[in-house]
Design goal:
alpha+beta, globular, binds flavin-adenine dinucleotide, binds iron/sulfur cluster
């Protein structure tokens, strides 16, 4: 290895975790190498064509993983600069304060995090600024108090969504505006980067107006001469020195050739499933069960939420373009008839016939799907799944990923679905359940890995966690994991803002360490 292959920091992966960390460390002047297995998402008209994106999966990872029984499936994930944030719906929620403590669910206990909400709050605020979150503080009855407003006002409801909001209020509920990372300027549309289109959730933004970690993480980081990024650079393995305490080589496959890099500090941010897989694949004599896996926690406790999509069919058409503006947390902690958490209700991007076709029987007539799509109001329900040692990422002999997952803690989720059904019926809508994989355009539920987390969890006890509170591996001196892997529990809101805020928190720790 030449001296030119040595850096102060190597960051592997450019998603919510890696991209945010890169932007935080870049101004330090330290030499930073970013390794990303994918390329930039090509900007082209297909970015916004649902047939190409949802039906044909044009930008999805072309990879097969296996389930518990060895059956292959195609995961709903993306390998590109910006990771899955290029495709996310940009709903940027903080976890509830209670999510950081122990929560009693019907299906068991959700464990406490080693850091508190109060420790995370300043980083949430910084992440909300970096990712230009649009929201109205104080509307959501479950959110912790925060004196600073969101950097931008909430994205307004379109008329049909406003009607829905008003109907829910009439029923006694407290709907609120979803905090969103879209660069929309409603006061001055001529100057607004975002054009408020109907292909946001699940699509890359053709005009780069979505707050993703390429546009607001990697691109600003690369403005600094000390930062280099290699794309199409897939990290295959991490090697350690003889003591096993230090990663001294990062092995990369790049466009058919093998390259080796090293750094004083190595950060893995490949997404919860790929980070666990990389650590497991990097087993050596000192780390026989995988790198940093003395606790046997690497790959375990995989979580992805209990998610459902519910289409409420309205007699009047729903011409909404940007639908993802309403959410409801009234059942987050409990309901009048159930003293355990149920979960969170929000919207998905407006479905069209092509999106519906991805979850419909093969011969469903286009006209019927079109009528359904023009009349539907499309809800997204999320409930917490609990960490379980048997829900895990493994690596097969041929190097491919195996994912074992059995759903748990379902009663709260089922009750949430029933609550929403009775609410939509009470306001004159008809309910139709769709498979949760519709969100990702795939028919196999296990493939719905959008909210993957928890596979390399952090904690103060090295026998029950793989990372310490700074997301450094307990067993190694220079190896960190800064993506959704560190979650000790999944909460019932979308994960990205928590991954971003944590990356800023770890970034501060690393800057101190690098001084
Ligand atoms: C359709 C969709 C909608 C979503 N909507 C929302 C939403 O509205 N709100 C929200 O909070 N969350 C949402 N999510 C989830 C959110 O996108 C993820 O939680 C977040 O992107 C995870 O960040 P991460 O850093 O853990 O991983 P990722 O963003 O997945 O980034 C991992 C990166 O590592 C790279 N990589 C992987 N392996 C290697 C390797 N071996 N070598 C080099 N590079 C590697 C990948 O290519 C990728 O760039 C959505 C996800 C999807 C798919
Ligand atoms: S223009 Fe706005 S609504 Fe459309 S994809 Fe981009 S950020 Fe989303």
């Amino acid at each position: 290895m030449t001296a030119s292959n040595h850096y102060d920091v190597i960051i592997i992966g450019t998603g919510a975790g890696g991209g945010t960390l890169a932007a935080r460390l870049a101004p330090s002047g330290k030499s930073i190498l970013i390794l990303e297995r994918g390329d930039y998402v090509r900007r082209e008209k297909d970015n916004w064509i649902s047939k190409a994106v949802v039906l044909e999966g044009k930008y999805k990872a072309h990879e097969a993983w296996r389930d518990r029984d060895g059956n292959e499936f195609h995961p709903g994930t993306n390998y590109n600069v910006g990771g899955n944030t290029k495709f996310y719906g940009a709903a940027l929620f903080r976890f509830r304060k209670e999510d950081f403590g122990v929560i009693r669910h019907k299906g068991g206990l959700s464990p406490a995090w080693p850091v508190s909400y109060d420790e995370m709050a300043p980083y949430y605020l910084r992440a909300e600024h970096q990712y230009q979150v649009h929201g109205n503080r104080g509307e959501d009855p479950t959110e912790a108090p925060e004196s600073a407003p969101y950097p931008f006002p909430a994205v307004s409801h379109e008329p049909r969504m406003q009607e829905l909001h008003d109907d829910l209020v009439r029923l006694g509920h407290q709907p609120f505006h979803v905090p969103l990372g879209v660069m929309l300027n409603e006061k001055n549309s001529a100057k607004s980067p975002c054009i408020r289109c109907n292909t946001c959730d699940g699509f890359p933004c053709l005009v780069n107006a979505k707050s993703d970690s390429q546009v607001l993480g990697i691109d600003p980081a690369l403005q600094h001469a000390n930062v280099t990024m290699l794309t199409n650079a897939r990290v295959q393995r991490l090697n350690t020195d003889a003591s096993g305490m230090t990663v001294n080589a990062v092995q990369v496959e790049r466009e058919g050739s093998r390259e080796t890099y090293s750094a004083d500090i190595v950060v893995v941010a490949c997404g919860a499933i790929n980070s666990a897989a990389l650590l497991l694949k990097s087993a050596n004599e000192k780390h026989r069960n995988g790198l940093g896996n003395r606790s046997d926690q690497v790959g375990r406790n995989y979580m992805c939420h209990n998610n459902s999509t519910l289409l409420a069919i309205s007699r009047t058409p729903n011409p909404t373009i940007f639908q993802k503006t309403i959410a409801l947390n009234d059942f987050y902690h409990r309901s009048d008839d159930f003293d355990f958490p149920l979960g969170h209700i929000s919207m998905i991007g407006k479905t069209d016939a092509d999106v519906l076709r991805s979850g419909a029987p093969k011969f469903a007539p286009h006209l019927a799907l079109d009528t359904l799509a023009t009349h539907s109001i499309d809800f997204w329900l999320t409930s917490e799944d609990l960490p379980s040692a048997d829900n895990r990422v493994l690596v097969d002999r041929d190097g491919s990923i195996r994912l074992h997952y059995t759903q748990n803690n379902l009663e709260g989720h089922e009750r949430l679905v029933q609550k929403l059904k009775s609410m939509v019926n009470a306001i004159g809508l008809e309910d139709h359940m769709m498979h949760n994989d519709l969100y990702l355009g795939k028919k196999i539920p296990l493939a719905g890995v959008a909210h993957q987390c928890g596979t390399v969890r952090f904690g103060d006890d090295p026998t029950t966690s793989a990372l310490d509170r700074n997301c450094k591996m307990h067993d190694l001196d220079n190896l960190y994991v800064v993506d959704g892997s560190f979650f000790a529990s999944s909460s019932a809101v979308n994960p990205a803002l928590t991954i971003m805020a944590n990356a800023l928190r770890v970034g501060d720790h690393l800057l101190e360490r690098l001084q």
